[in-house]
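User: For my dataset I need records formatted as: sequence, then structure tokens, nothing else. Please produce one.
Assistant:
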Amino acid sequence: MRKEFLIEAKPPEFYNYISGRIKILEIGLLSRETVERISSQDSVSGVKEVLSETPYRQFVKGETFSSLTESVFARFDAELSDMEKFVSQGFINSFFREKTVFLKIKKWALLGKGEEENPLFSDLFEFVTTGAGDFPFIFREMYNEMVLRKENPLEVGILLDIYRLKFLSDSARLVNSPLISDYYLKYTEKSLKEILARLFGFVNSSLVDNVSLEQTLKKLGGMLSDYPLAKNLLSIGDREGFVEFVKEKIFSSESGISDSELRKVLERGRFVNMGVEVVFVYLKRLQREVSELAMILSGKGNGISGKEILEKVSAAYE
């Protein structure tokens, strides 16, 4: 397996140095008060001023909300690159850059290859199209199925979600961490319900026919058979059965997995003082922070009030 996707389980003491360093970095995560200050600013200069008081200061540039959004993501990219000095590239790519990889493969399946400046993506394209290389086979499998079904972009989008969930679940097992496995157990259950709700909308709007629905349900049930919700899809025989299943298991359920439950897993991880879990929890908290800052900046760029923005942003801060 290429080092960019190789995950190796290491003993907790392997992470001694970075665990101590992260405990200091965690202090720099934004408080709820700071997030509210950012959201309350009406101008780009006002947001820049607040961000300049935080660890984002060295990345802040530009005079538009979109340029500030780029600055926020630049800080996250820099943190990922820094962490690669202490944990494997495979760990970082599998849990924090995987969406970029899957979206790239989807683009190739639908549109073919464009100019690829990154040598890794050039090699990955060669792998998914010819099999030459040593990448996770799931990438090639997904590409081939997307090519077969590329006439329906809605199906291709759902395929991306299915394969990505499978990849994350399998990668979590390789880490050999109960906390990380628990996080992705809950993440997959939550994502499954979201996929089924979206598919329900496509079916009701006649955007997905019966043949495509059957193929999608078999793919969900087969690839994510470790999850009862997905496994039960294999016994659904028609559109009516699927509609009733979703109404009963998704829309009438009061026990769905929420973002707050994922945050609870991360909160548990804050009491771990040494090990790869320390890196995972910090980067997941930072990733959430960056995503929510991007939501705020996007909202401000579209003229949405600070109050409205805060109502849309989950309460992920202390």
